[in-house]
Specification:
The structure holds 2 protein chains of 2 kinds. Chain A is 5% helix and 45% strand. Chain A has a single domain, classed as OB fold (Dihydrolipoamide Acetyltransferase, E2P). By secondary structure, chain A is mainly beta. Chain A has a 5-stranded mixed beta barrel with strand order 2-3-4-6-5. Chain B is α+β, with helices and mostly antiparallel strands. Helices cover 14% and strands 26% of the residues of chain B. In chain B, strands 1, 2, 3, 4, 5, 6, 7, 8, 9 and 10 form a 10-stranded antiparallel β-sheet that branches. In chain B, β9 and β10 form a beta hairpin. Classes of the chains: A mainly beta, B alpha+beta. At the A-B interface, α1 of A face α1 of B.
């Protein structure tokens, strides 16, 4: 079931924000971690950050759009992650940090397939 | 400041990701020389991501608690990137933020004593002479004005004439336009550079302080294009704001 979970995840922040090159705090609220499960609609593989777009069902079953920032494509490629590591339509789980502006935007910390395998570990800035 | 505490807590994991991995092993052996007899720094170098110049870990020996002047402390305590983030806005990172970025840097040097630092971060670069000459007179800039000389096998780069609009790291440790930055590069072996940064800024700090890092040669990497502006959605959609520089930090 696709759903949005807002929760405080113990230890979550300790694994995040590795590929920072500018301030995370300028845009995202590090006190608001988020877990999102949804279907990939597109991946924008361009610098300075790749972005992944998701269709996510809320608790009422309504589909809402989400966008989550990844690391730079250069860094991700050097770590062996490819633009097609996830397929359009594939369900994934994104752990991230919410944007301060209240939109459905997050800075990604890791991405997993539904079977628990990790796709991307790290991202954001 | 809570944001800084969180960022500090992240530091160890952060620099860890910036280190070479994936089974790569840097070349071993003695430090090479160029055909013209100088220490050879040519190559693509992985460097520790240094979001906090005070902390130690992951290839960096930090400065510890910084000796602020009253002016410097005010700059540090009043820094609010959510009100204006120059790097997030794709303004020039400047020399220190480029040296501390998580992306690699290529070094090229020529027989006629020119050296180039090619930062992948935003595809910025710096070219400077290494022949012992003094700084010339030019307009203050984001990257400052650099000249180099040799002290034995150590390359010493001195940079002044900063515009005072940059920060020393992602966390926002400050400096002024009075900064004199001295960097020492020593090729300790075939695979590594010992890097030392000395911050001498009497307007911001009561005494000079140092930060040391280790760079690793990546023979398996090339420098890639990096456009900061192309897909900077965060800025385009208004979540990151351009700083206002009506009153530069002078």
């Amino acid at each position: 079931m696709r759903s949005i979970y807002l929760s405080v995840l113990a230890g979550f922040l300790a694994t995040g924000a590795a590929w920072c090159h500018h301030s995370l705090a300028a845009e995202f609220d590090q006190s608001k971690p988020v877990n999102i499960t949804g279907a990939v609609t597109s991946i924008d593989w361009r610098n300075p950050h790749a972005w992944i777009y998701l269709d996510v069902k809320d608790e009422a079953g309504k589909v809402v759009k989400w966008q989550c920032e990844l690391g730079s494509p250069n860094q991700m490629a050097r770590s062996g992650w490819k633009q097609d590591s996830v397929k359009i339509g594939e369900e994934i789980i994104v752990a991230g940090i919410l944007a301060k502006d209240g939109t459905n935007t997050c800075s990604t910390r890791n991405v997993k397939y539904k079977d628990g395998r990790t796709v991307f570990s790290q991202g954001g800035r | 400041m809570n944001i800084r505490l969180v960022a500090a807590a992240l530091f160890v994991s952060a620099v860890g990701f910036a280190q070479p991995g994936g089974g790569y092993k840097p070349p071993e052996g003695p430090a090479p020389k160029t055909p013209w007899g100088k220490p050879d720094f040519n190559g693509v170098w992985a460097r520790p991501y240094a979001p906090d110049v005070t902390r130690t870990g992951g290839g960096q020996i930090g400065a510890g608690e910084l000796p602020y002047t009253e002016w410097g402390k005010k700059q540090w305590e009043s820094y609010k990137p959510e009100e204006g983030d120059y790097t997030g806005s794709c303004l020039p990172f400047g020399h220190m933020r480029s040296m501390g970025s998580p992306d690699p840097m290529q070094i090229m040097q020529t027989p006629d004593n020119q050296m180039a630092f090619l930062y992948e971060q935003n595809s910025w670069f710096k070219v400077f002479p290494v022949d012992g000459r003094k700084h010339d007179d030019r307009v203050a800039s984001w990257f400052g004005n650099s000249v180099g000389h040799w002290e034995g096998d150590t390359l010493v780069v001195e940079t002044i004439n900063f515009n005072g609009l940059t920060r020393l790291d992602t966390n926002g440790h400050p400096h002024s336009d009075k900064l004199k930055l001295t960097e020492k590069f020593t090729r300790t072996d075939a695979g590594h550079i010992a890097y030392e940064m000395i911050v001498d800024d009497p307007k911001t700090y009561t005494r000079p302080w140092t930060n040391k890092r280790t760079f690793t040669l990546r023979t398996d990497w090339t420098i890639l294009e990096y456009s900061c502006e192309e897909n900077n959605k965060s800025f385009i959609e208004g979540r990151i704001k351009m700083p206002k520089y009506d009153t530069p930090a002078k």
